[in-house]
Design a protein that fits this description.
The complex is a heterodimer of chains A (141) and B (191).
Chain A (H helix, E strand, L loop, with lengths): L5 H13 L3 H10 L1 H9 L2 H12 L6 H13 L5 H8 L10 H10 L34
Chain B lengths: L1 H29 L6 E2 L16 E2 L4 H13 L4 E3 L9 H7 L8 H10 L2 E3 L10 E5 L5 E7 L12 E5 L5 E5 L10 E6 L2
Antiparallel strand pairs in B: 1-2, 3-8, 4-9, 5-6, 5-9, 6-7, 7-8
The chains are: A mainly alpha (141), B alpha+beta (191).
Chain lengths: 141, 191
């Protein structure tokens, strides 16, 4: 099972104690080198396995809770689609802010380059070979 | 004799039901891993929207041990108002009269809207107004109540009372805390 250093745990527990919202906790944990090191040192499978083991412990030990949040946040440095598929198999409902933190990270993954203009229906027209490039789809105005 | 047996039976049955109920409640608490969490209170905004909230009832010794670090970090310029309690958080102090914790920033936005809070310019802030600390993502990460008007002597930084997560209620200069003072809003109810 993945263990965190006592210095790291103390810092993360401070953040956990001061957090009024899941967003604050997410930012503070993500900024901490502990979560970055976890992501660097362990694979997605190893982190998720450790996460599952700790989630299965029905204890109110704050060290367990803080470690779970650290593991969860470390996954935000990994490939999103791979982690998201793995996390779908994990029950985060026993954590107050587990879902909030992951959905907060998921929101960042949404493509932002699609623009839908109100009242305007795009209509593709024929592409002139001379104008056709790598990404040229001419939209009729 | 028959009457005594009947009374004893009733008492035994009541004790059994009571202990079963107690066990059920305790198991209900154990369902949450974070802390012993109770259901929230029935709270509504002025426009009758429900305010989701919950009370955390326990705090571990390990967490208490970390609190010394906060005191070393913010030793001067802060005054402690209460013992550490997880029962309410900053938003619970500002918007819930210290009764419970409000943890979802979108709920705070709802309260601001429904309760008709309006922004107050820095030079018009008065004691009793509220201060909102806006996080890097635009969410309200902390709140408190202004207790002194921002003066020029204090570089226009007011004294506020706020609750730091599960830690204590603190009287502090608005910038003497771990929350994002670089982006704050002052608000007041428009009555």
């Amino acid at each position: 099972m993945i263990e965190l250093s006592s210095a790291g745990l103390a810092r993360l527990t401070e953040a956990y104690g001061l957090a009024n919202t899941p967003e604050f906790l997410y930012r503070r944990l993500r900024r901490d080198e502990v979560t970055l090191n976890l992501a660097h040192d362990y694979s997605v499978c190893e982190i998720v396995e450790s996460l599952k083991q700790r989630l299965s412990v029905m204890s109110k030990d704050v060290i367990t809770v803080v470690t779970i949040y650290a593991l969860l946040v470390s996954l935000t440095y990994k490939d999103f689609s791979e982690v998201d598929a793995e996390l779908k198999k994990v029950d985060l409902s026993s954590l107050d802010w587990g879902h909030s933190i992951w959905s907060r990270h998921s929101r960042e993954q949404i493509a932002t380059h699609i623009i839908i203009l109100p009242g305007y229906t795009p209509r593709p027209i024929s592409i002139e070979p001379s104008k056709a490039g790598n990404s040229s789809l001419i939209i009729a105005r | 004799m028959l009457k005594r047996c009947w009374l004893f039976g009733r008492k035994a049955l009541a004790a059994l039901v009571s202990s079963l109920l107690r066990m059920f409640r305790q198991n209900g608490k154990m369902e949450r891993l974070d802390q012993a969490v109770d259901k929230g209170l029935l709270m509504q905004t002025m426009a009758s929207s429900d305010i989701p909230n919950y009370q955390v009832k326990e705090i571990s010794q390990f967490e208490r041990n970390q609190f010394g670090a906060y005191e070393r970090k913010f030793g001067t310029g802060v005054e402690i108002r209460s013992e550490a309690t997880p029962l309410y958080n900053c938003h619970g102090l500002t918007f819930g009269s210290r009764r419970t914790g409000i943890y979802d920033p979108s709920v705070v936005e709802l309260i601001l809207k429904d309760d008709a809070y309006v922004d107050v310019p820095e030079d018009r802030v008065l004691p009793g107004d509220i201060i909102l600390y806006i996080g890097e993502d635009g969410d309200i990460e902390h709140s408190g109540i202004v207790v002194t008007t921002p003066s020029k002597d204090l570089l226009r930084i007011p004294m506020v009372v706020s609750k730091w997560g599960k830690y204590r209620e603190i009287l502090h200069l608005a910038n003497k805390c771990d929350y994002n003072f670089s982006n704050v809003r002052y608000c007041r109810m428009k009555l």
